[in-house]
Amino acid sequence: MCGIAGEIAFRGARAEQEPVARMTAAMASRGPDGHGSWTNGRVALGHRRLTVIDLSEAGAQPMHDPGSGLTIVFNGCIYNYPELRAELGGDTVFSSTSDTEGILRAYQRWDEDFVDHLVGMFAVAVVDERRERVVMARDRLGIKPLYIAELPGRLRFASTLPALVAGGGVNTSIDEVALHHYLSWHSIVPAPRTILRGVRKLPPATVRVIDADGGRRDRVYWKPDYVRNAGKADWSVDDWQDALHESLTTAVRRRLVSDVPVGVLLSGGVDSSLIVALLAELGQEGLSTFSIGFDGAGGEEGDEFRYSDLIAEKYGTRHHRISIAGSELVPAIEDTIGAMTEPMGTQDVTGFYLLSKTVSEHIKVVQSGQGADEVFAGYAYHQPAGTASRREALDAFRGAFLDRTHEQIADVVEPEWYTDTDVSRALLEAHLDAPGADSALDAVLRLDTHLLLVDDPVKRVDSMTMAWGLEARVPFLDQDLVTLAAQCPPEFKATQGGKGIPKDIARKVIPPEVIDRPKGYFPVPPVKYLAEPLLTTVREALRAPEAKDRGLFRADYVDLLLDEPNGHYSPGGNNMLWQLGVLELWLQRHGITG
Q1: pTM confidence score
Q2: What residues make up the catalytic site (predicted)?
Q3: Is the pLDDT of residue 34 over 60?
């Protein structure tokens, strides 16, 4: 787990080390244990290190191998690196026990196909001096980020968008298509776009080869098709339960690989509780678990401790209850916004930030339950797709998920930022109508898992944990588990209000009161129900000179929200005023004036 940065110069130019140094310094929190740099004149690399595997200097980055002419920077964790070393064979010489070197040797052996041999989460850049190219790759589910900026005669990349801004020279004007997505889908901006016109993201499951003259090509190396597998056509629901139970157990076991202890973020919901139960089945003892709670507000409770306590007691974990008073929450919001790799309007981001702060004081690595809802149809908006015909997938999804229609966005943004066409609908339509996906729910789950998930819960958890040098691993997004779940008949997943099969697996190992209750969300009521002094912070941001100069939002719409700050919510329960406020606060925090 780390922060990576680099610059690639084209057409005989030299890579500049100073911008890379600034980008690397901007990501110090992602790698508090060390830093490094490297250049060969045409490429310059920077790295911030969080030591989790091979704690010695032999595992430091950038890792350069003169014999092969390869240099690598890498963010993430390769869970199968011991097996990878065995696969490479005894004639491959290693100088460390790091997973980083495993990737380097895999590239040396299999060239661009090295990604097919990796099990884990990763963003990688390999400098291949002999072939005069740089090869980038991102993991299958986009758990690890990789941002890219095109500049005249060069390209830069980093693990965060603010790091690229810190490097200088980036076009920071607002991308109106990204803004349309942000306002349509509770602040989600899918790859390859970001809210800034001059910064893009490498999409998940993608290898990008960049030649010395700046030419480039992409290859998508993994893509489940969400159709029924002929070999599993006669499987009963019990067969699927057994297979998915085994696959999830493998996923949890894989994420134990570490040279430091691994804990669990225990929310008290089914997903994280099941992870704790499976770790107990695997013989883990003395497991550290962590739960967070806040003051209630608006008649809504701010914690789920009664459920997390049940699991902690049942499995004898070393449990940590983290209670955050409302007086602590508001001062943390400014730093939370600073830690966002992109603006995120969901109300639980500050909760993850404060949770990660405390957890990082005890441990460096945790497992988390993110991704289960997208993979196993756990959200309320999945239910309409379960009864819709295949051709009705788009309408079923939009009706349950959309924050604002294209027409409503015209009332939010100034005319210069309003797109002529409904670009958000067009993107959904392209993904939902793509070949594969047998049913409407299959199509929606494919969309959720491979497009939207990446830039909502996954990005949120990565940003907030890495703000404190904490590595979060997500077993429900294991590549083999996701592939298997994609083949599972959707009706088996959508039962019991969603996540039917995981719930049935859980019934064998966790108390029923944790399972048979209304779905919980990470509750942060003081953000959902805006009050002073946070309301003043939002008001000042939206009326600041920077906001007026930028001119994104119509003044009458902003006034409407400010006059009734808790009167406008998205279908998912997010405060619409907070969504606008976060965007302005984030832009101002990072000095973005475009």
Answers
A1: 0.96
A2: 2 (for gatase activity)
A3: yes
